[in-house]
Structure formats: C-alpha cells, structure tokens
Amino acid sequence: MTRLNLILFLTTLAICNINCTAQITSSKQSTANKSGIITGADQTEKYLPYLKGKRIGLVANQSSLIGKKSSVDSLVSLGIKIVKVFGPEHGFRGNASNGAVVNNEIDVKTGIPIISLYGKNEKPTKEQLANIDLMVFDIQDVGCRYYTNINTLEYVMEACAENGKELLILDRPNPNAYVVDGPVMTDDKFKSGIGIHYTPMTHGMTIGEFAQYLNGEGYLKQQCKIKIIKVANWNHDTPYVLPINPSPNLNTQQAVELFPSLCMFEGTAINEGRGTYMPFTILGAPALKGKYSFSYKPVGIPGMSERPNQKDSVCYGLDLRKYDINNLRKSRQLNLSWVIELYKAYPDKANFFGKERADTGVSPFDLRIGTDQLRKQIIAGVSEADIRKSWEPGLQKFKGIRSKYLIYH
C-alpha cells in the first residue's frame, strides 16, 4: 500500500469512526428522549462516587438494570466491590415460581454469594451484614400491598437500622402509581406474608417514597438512614412501560396494570391465569362452563406456577388481554366489577371465597384484601357504589398520610 493510499485509508476510517460514534450517540439520545424517564439506577454519575471504596450489599433481582444490563454485572464491571447480593421472592435471577423456596447460592456469573430473603430468612442477619459498608436497594415494584417487595424493603431497612448501615435506594417508577384504592388494612389479624402494612390495596408510591413512609410512620423500632437516587422526568401520572418482567407471572404490561385488580382472585375459586402464559390477563373456573364461551386450561409451568388453582381443568370466564387499560387510568380505581360479576355467576357460592382458617377465622381472600368486609359486602349483594363509599374514610386518611412522603408531583 502506497503512502498516499494509506493516508486515504486512515482518513476514511477516522471519518467512519466519527460517523459511527455520532450515530450511536444520536441513537442513545433519541431512545432517552423518547420516554424521557431515567431511573435512579441509570443515573450512575449521581451514586458511583458514593459506592467507590465501599463493600456493597445489593438487594436486587432480574428487574435491577443499568441500561439493559444487570445492575450487579454493571457495577462489578465499573469497579464496585459487591460482596453480597440479597434476592427477594422469585430469586435474584427472577426464575423461581411464586411462593417457591429460594436457597442461598453462589452466582455462577460473578462468584458473588447470593442470600435469599424469601422464606425463613426474610431479614438480613447481623452476620450477613458484618462485612458490608453500604446496602443498596434496586428492585422494580408494582405498587400493591400484596406484592412482597415492600415487605422485603421493610425487613432490609430494619436490619440496616439495627446494625448501623445506611441504605441507598435506586428508585424506579411505579407503573400503577396513578391509583390509590381499595380498603385500608387496619386489623393485625389480616397481616401475613402477602400484606404487613396499613395501606390500601394499591398505595401509589415508589420504593423510595415507601421507604420514607416506613421511616415516618413508625414501622421500624428505629429509623433507617436512607439516601434516594430519584427518578428523573417522571411523576405519578406518567405512564411507564417496564423494560423487563418484574416477576415470572407479570410477563406483559397488560398483566402489570391488571395485577392490582386480578390478584384478589387468588383467594377465590377463580384461576387468574396462573398455569398459562397469560397470567393476570384472564379469569376462569370449570364451574362457569355454559356461562362464558372463553376457555383455557391451566397446567404446571416450571418457573411460573407449578401448582396453579384449577390445575389441568378447563376453565371458562373472562379474557382481558385486550381490555383497555386506559379505563383504569381514567378512573384511578381498581376494577371491582369483575369479582362481583364472577361471584354472581358462580353456582357454588359457598365455596367461591375459600374456607376461613379455623385458627384465625380469616379466609385467603381476606388476607389479600386486608379486611373481611369486602367479602361480606359482596355476599350480601351490596352495590359497587356503596362498597366504594365505605372505603372513602380510610382512603382519605391514608392519602393525607401518604402526601407527606411523596417525592414526585
């Protein structure tokens, strides 16, 4: 190659590199500007200096992303020393079924110990926190009392407070932040693994806001020192499409936004789509044959639902996959009509809501709702309007409390 050709080749290569870099930058900018929302985790410039030189414990799962890459993998590649990862329900990689036992293990990819915070060890122990300088919480939530990430948040905050550890929260939008609805749980007898907070069924807060609520409302014996990296360009009315499934059975955006309304069916004879690849978008039961034309058959699916309600039986009911979610957004309410409709259609009404436990007198349905009043109202034929009216005193009181802890307006 002559000297002239070499110069031309290098010049062309340099121009190509500049153009390619410009195209990549432009692509990134257009992607960012398309939604405008930037999660706390994606604003690395705001917290990486704070992590440098510290031994980090990270509470994370598959929804913990920096860009399109796992937060764990990203932080390790950026030179952050992560000594332990704590995983909630469904495990760190998010591939365990609902309610499944998740054991401690070593992450194959990074060699970092993974501590399960679901099951017997819900709260990090003093020994588990001993070699940690700073805890980081980065998990996508969906804004429901019965979605167990907020339970994990409280236990982590409690452990940090007791052991003098600060908690850094990389906040994420709540896709259901527009709705604060349902009866407020006020009686301790309705506390369980699927609900330990005195909130409505949907609380309308992000993880960061909920952490401030836990600190401020006396849920902890002593307050936890927290630092929040806020979401940019988002408020409670901004729609947010999740970039990754927050759990195995919330595998579409439709399911994420129907979940607050459909999860209450888990305490009934109705299958809510578990055991199919359409969870939380369909409803049905064998006993509804002849009353609905839509049908499906739930089966055991490893990593999603091994033992779904009505397993291996053909179910008949409602197909909500094309339901217009804007109806929920406009009303800012849970959909209560579906549970009333299916109760009225169900032939064996005595077994619709499941049996109350002999020791507590609480049914599975009541645990999700946080009270036995809704069940009794539906059985008694109380109208939806009157049911909602009975919620109002508790909702108004909660909204007043909640307003003190909101970050996004």
TrEMBL record:
Q: Which residues form the signal peptide?
A: 1-22
Q: Note whether Signal occurs among the keywords.
A: yes
GO terms (molecular function) for this protein are: peptidoglycan beta-N-acetylmuramidase activity
Q: Which UniProt keywords apply?
A: Signal
Name of the protein: DUF1343 domain-containing protein
Extract the PANTHER family matched here: HYPOTHETICAL 460 KDA PROTEIN IN FEUA-SIGW INTERGENIC REGION [PRECURSOR], PEPTIDOGLYCAN BETA-N-ACETYLMURAMIDASE NAMZ
Q: Describe the location of the Peptidoglycan beta-N-acetylmuramidase NamZ C-terminal domain by residue ranges.
A: 258-408
Top-rank taxon, per record: Bacteria
Query: Taking every annotated instance into account, which residue ranges of this chain make up the domain Peptidoglycan beta-N-acetylmuramidase NamZ N-terminal?
Result: 56-253
Pfam families per UniProt? NamZ_C, NamZ_N
| InterPro entries listed in its UniProt record | NamZ, NamZ_C, NamZ_N
Residue spans making up a coiled coil are: none
Species of provenance: Pedobacter frigiditerrae
